[in-house]
Amino acid sequence: MIEGVQITDLKVIGTDKGDIKHALKSSEFSFEKFGEAYFSEVHQNVIKGWKLHKEMILNLIVPCGLIKFVIFEEKTGQFMEIEIGEQNYKRLTIPSDLWVAFQGKSSTQNVLLNIGSIEHDPNESISKNLDEIEYCW
Amino acid sequence: MIEGVQITDLKVIGTDKGDIKHALKSSEFSFEKFGEAYFSEVHQNVIKGWKLHKEMILNLIVPCGLIKFVIFEEKTGQFMEIEIGEQNYKRLTIPSDLWVAFQGKSSTQNVLLNIGSIEHDPNESISKNLDEIEYCW
């Protein structure tokens, strides 16, 4: 585990009509502040990344499909990987100053929800090409 | 339109790797407070409702599938209906004290995200059976 990263089990309440799935409560430890919520889709086998947020804390939940996340901590050279989604329904909380990339794993729609602590601001994130951080996908 | 209900166009940023879809920013008029975010799935043709929240303001976005919402204002007897989802990507903001029911329309997964202004509390919502409010589905 990389320091500050949290993986939280989320409750799924099954019903005949369709499930209720928890995402984030304001009273939870993972919640700092609400800045913006947005969705990002990623097609099967496609990789989005790398991106590092200098300020935003990410709360990531995958309601549709399955997504592999890889987190890279530059100062320690440490990698961390996890797949979350319908088959492993958890929340991934990522503090600022870590590199993140993610890959669609399901042949159906892969959708992540990020509940970020600040609004989108192109000046607070930096990007690298996929091959600039060596990782065997 | 029922007073206080807002329908907001949301931006979709198309990319080859998968779309980015806006949901809610803290600076937007529709945002009051972050209490809890959760997902609710509803199978095709199935209806969930009726439910009235005495306090919670709902911000509803449908990232997967298509869902028909029906809102009923008891004091005026007025109904309002809208379908939102991938084919009509908008946010539906519903103030408290209105009856809401919704129906899955797509044969694929129908998923709504609610960003509610307060945390779930069974004492602040009331339910009615579907046939207790007459509406031709």
Describe it for me?
Two copies of one chain form a homodimer. By secondary structure, chain A is mainly β. The first copy, chain A, has a single domain, classed as Jelly Rolls. Helix content of chain A is 0%, strand content 50%. Chain A has strands at 6-9, 12-13, 20-25, 36-41, 47-53, 58-64, 66-73, 78-85, 90-94, 99-104, 111-116, 125-127. In chain A, the strands form three sheets. The first copy, chain A, has a five-stranded antiparallel β-sheet, with no helix packed on it. In chain A, strands 8-7-10-5-12 form a five-stranded antiparallel β-sheet, with no helix packed on it. Chain A has a two-stranded antiparallel ribbon with strand order 2-3. In chain A, a hairpin with a 6-residue loop joins β2 (12-13) and β3 (20-25). Chains A and B meet through β3, β4, β6 and β11 of A and β3, β4, β6 and β11 of B.
Q: Features of this protein?
A:
137 residues, 5-stranded antiparallel beta sheet, globular, 50% strand, mainly beta, 0% helix, Jelly Rolls, homodimer
Summary of the model, kept short:
The first copy, chain A, is mostly beta strands and 137 residues long. The first copy, chain A, contains no helices and twelve strands. In chain A, strand 7 (66-73) and strand 8 form a beta hairpin.
How many H/I helices of chain A?
0
CATH 4th-level superfamily of chain A: Jelly Rolls
Could you state the order of secondary-structure elements of chain A as H and E? EEEEEEEEEEEE
- Quick one: CATH class of chain A? Mainly Beta
Taken from the alpha-carbon principal axes, the silhouette of chain A is: globular
The fraction of residues in strands of chain A falls at over 45%
Calculate Rg of chain A over CA atoms: 15 Å
- Report the structural category of chain A: mainly beta
Corresponding CATH architecture of chain A: Sandwich
Q: What is the total number of structural domains of chain A?
A: 1
Which segments of chain A are poorly predicted (pLDDT under 50) over 5 or more consecutive residues?
A: none
CATH topology of chain A: Jelly Rolls
Compute the separation of the termini of chain A in Å.
Answer: 19 Å
Question: How many DSSP E strands of chain A?
Answer: 12
Mind describing the biggest β-sheet of chain A? 5 strands, antiparallel
